[in-house]
Amino acid sequence: MASGHSTLSLVDELNCPICLQLFSDPVILDCGHDFCRECITRHWDNETKALCPECGQVFRDRNLKSNRALGKLVKKSRNISLNLKVRGKNPYCAEHQEELKLFCETDKKLICVMCLDRRDGRSHKAHNFMLVNEAVEIYKDKMNMSLGSLKQKKSYYEGFELKQQEKITEIKDQSNNLRIHITSEFSKMRSILDEKQHNLFTDLTTQESEVLSRMAANLRKIQENLSRTQKMLADLQNRLQHQDVYSILKDPPLDDQSEDNYQPTITEGNLPVGIFQGPVQYRIWKQVIDVISPAPAFLTLNAKTAHPRLLLSEDLTVVTYGDVKQDVTDNPERFDTCVCVLGTEALVSGKHYWEVQVGSKTEWDLGMVKQSINRKGHTTATPEAGYWIVWLRNGNEYKAATVPRTRLNVTLKPRAIGVYLDYEGGQVSFYNAENMSHLYTFIDTFTESLFPYFSPGINEDGENSEPLQILQVKCHEE
Q1: What is the value of pTM for the model shown?
Q2: In whole angstroms, what is the distance from residue 372 CA to residue 346 CA?
């Protein structure tokens, strides 16, 4: 305690006689008294003579010399005061060594009573201030309010964090399932192709065996006659070497032609190269397409659903917009406003794929609809209403019937559209059938029968006169 008291006394000795605060940039006069440079300068500005406020000595020149030693001492004293502040129970003002009992709301800082009446123009009098205890209670209330708000915000963000993590997990699981699916599909294809390759090798081996068997039999016959001829030749040569006339006349040589009329030939043979070196890949594709799942389906149009303006081909695979309205029965299945027609077969399960030729048309609609859609009057095509379709407008505007509409990025104008349905998987996808590039996919849940949907669009300007044609793919050659 004595140390603290002596330190405070030392601080009092380091106060400027004019401002009564610790010296700031202390200067020493010729009389030996010290002042703040700013304080003595301001004092002399208000006086006619330069005199010392302490002893009254008058100076001819207003020379001010810095007192560096005193400045260092003041700096150390400030540091000691700060240390005392920290060690003490209550905070003290670094400038006035008074307890900080007030809070200046304007400057957001603690002040002492003397800070309210500063002589250097930095007074807090015009500011809003209150007792520290009052300020603490007010700020505690504010902090409690902020605490509740932050807890709500924390819970809010945690909810989004959890949902985002669930979405990330969902995408990872989906990606893993798709990898498994792709691997399985290619494994099936490889298995089928391996089987077809094995069958071709077996057929080739059989063909080779049959041709070589005939050639080998002919070769053996040639070799047998060659061996007999060689034996006869050796016998004759041996008899001629003996030069025994009696022996030669007694057993004259036989005419080998009279002995054997065999005429050797070359057995010709060729493998059926056309089977093994023709369009092998295309032939195999024609054979395996019927085991591909799903293979392009054989679809037909349901004439009972066709709008009166639509003309259907005899085989029910082509639909054209007609110039006149036909006189047809207005049955419940028929569309009377939407210029469209449905496929004949209801799809209630499984995976299906079909292709529709759109040619150079400037307008068309294709996709899937549920059985219960409204067929009379105007209807807005959306998935909620039972429409999973895409369309073309103005020759280059491709959109999906979502809410709002989704514009499709189509770089190459398709002349045929592929439509894929996975009923249990809740998927309807669209492709450029020429290169199988993906156009758009709907993901939904199906609970009733679905039908393929076709609309050739209207033909007011003559530029959209081409029909829509369901492409039929022959699975294999009979």
Answers
A1: 0.58
A2: 12
